[in-house]
């Protein structure tokens, strides 16, 4: 399974944008980039996914580097409810066997 | 959005007994489900792939005789922890896979907190 590298932790202030980076230098051409987040004592929650182009949805934006070796999850205005562990995962389209790394623990300060 | 439900959300059992955890896809059929285990302050560890109508595929190091998986219908997979010991205490999470156009999408249950005393 292709691996990803994320910072262990990040901090943000409420209502400010947050940029969560992810490196995936060994990504293959068919790997999708998935982002999930996990609140304490809950199962992971889907955030966003992409293949090559940048993606936007109601939760976040995903910026994918041109060479696809890195990506950035963007939360446009962090809220206290966004405090969670964010996982960047590579997965084959058509097979959602997701292998989780350590993720980034995001702390949002009021 | 699609909903995956796990039951129970919490369970405490005595050492040596068996515990069954259910994972249901409530509004879609899932031919594939996955089971994960998560220890405190650690990431999710994939345990096995549950395939409807066939045997589960276990990840390396996971004992198939200890963690019995049954996927008897398109909406239900069960994980039975047999002869549980305190070291099996963990947070168990399932995911169910729903076809979504040309790709599939994973939906996760809310998790089951198992405590073995």
Describe this structure in words.
The complex is a heterodimer of chains A (110) and B (117). Chain A has 110 residues and is mainly β. Chain A is 0% helix and 47% strand. Chain A has no helices and nine strands. Chain A has a five-stranded mixed β-sheet, with no helix packed on it. In chain A, strands 2-7-6-5 form a four-stranded antiparallel β-sheet, with no helix packed on it. Chain A is globular. The relative contact order of chain A is 0.34. The mean pLDDT of chain A is 92. Chain B has 117 residues and is mostly beta strands. In chain B, 0% of the residues lie in helices and 56% in strands. In chain B, the strands form two sheets. In chain B, strands 2, 4, 5, 6, 9, 10 and 11 form a seven-stranded mixed β-sheet that branches. Chain B is globular. The model of chain B has no long low-confidence stretch (mean pLDDT 92). The chains are: A mainly beta (110), B mainly beta (117). At the A-B interface, strand 3 of A face strand 4, strand 5, strand 9 and strand 10 of B.
Question: Keywords for this structure?
Answer:
heterodimer; A: 110 residues; mainly beta; 0% helix; 47% strand; globular; B: 117 residues; 11 strands; 56% strand
What spatial form of chain B do the alpha-carbon principal axes imply? globular
Taking strands numbered 1, 2, ... along the chain, how are they ordered across the largest sheet of chain A? Answer: 1-9-8-3-4
Poorly predicted ranges of chain B (pLDDT <50, ≥5 residues)?
none
Mean pLDDT of chain B: 92
The largest sheet of chain A is:
5 strands, mixed
Number of beta strands of chain B: 11
Most extensive chain interface and residues per partner: A-B, 21 and 26 residues
Mean pLDDT across all amino acids of chain A: 92
Total helices of chain A: the number is 0
Secondary structure blueprint with pairings:
The complex is a heterodimer of chains A (110) and B (117).
Chain A: E1 9-13, E2 18-23, E3 31-38, E4 45-50, E5 55-56, E6 61-64, E7 70-75, E8 84-92, E9 104-109
Parallel strand pairs in A: 1-9
Antiparallel strand pairs in A: 2-7, 3-4, 3-8, 5-6, 6-7, 8-9
Chain B: E1 4-7, E2 10-13, E3 19-25, E4 32-38, E5 45-51, E6 57-58, E7 67-73, E8 76-81, E9 90-100, E10 103-108, E11 112-116
Parallel strand pairs in B: 2-11
Antiparallel strand pairs in B: 1-3, 3-8, 4-5, 4-9, 5-6, 7-8, 9-10, 9-11
């Amino acid at each position: 399974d292709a691996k990803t590298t994320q910072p262990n932790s990040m901090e943000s202030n409420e209502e400010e944008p947050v940029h969560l980076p992810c490196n995936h230098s060994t990504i293959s051409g068919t790997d999708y980039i998935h982002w999930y987040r996990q609140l304490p004592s809950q199962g992971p929650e889907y955030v966003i996914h992409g293949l090559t182009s940048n993606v936007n949805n109601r939760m976040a934006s995903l910026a994918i580097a041109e060479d696809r070796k890195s990506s950035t999850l963007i939360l446009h205005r962090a809220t206290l409810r966004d405090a969670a562990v964010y996982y960047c995962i590579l997965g084959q389209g058509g097979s959602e066997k997701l292998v989780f790394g350590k993720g980034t623990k995001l702390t949002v300060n009021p | 959005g699609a909903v995956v439900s796990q039951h129970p959300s919490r369970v405490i059992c005595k050492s040596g007994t068996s515990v069954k955890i259910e994972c249901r896809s409530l509004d879609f059929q899932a031919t594939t489900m996955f089971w994960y285990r998560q220890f405190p302050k650690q990431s999710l560890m994939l345990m096995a792939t549950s395939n409807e109508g066939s045997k589960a595929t276990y990840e390396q190091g996971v004992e198939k005789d200890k963690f019995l998986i049954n996927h008897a219908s398109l909406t239900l997979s069960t994980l039975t922890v047999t002869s549980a010991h305190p070291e099996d205490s963990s947070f168990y999470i399932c995911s169910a896979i729903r076809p979504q156009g040309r790709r599939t999408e994973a939906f996760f249950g809310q998790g089951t907190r198992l405590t073995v005393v």
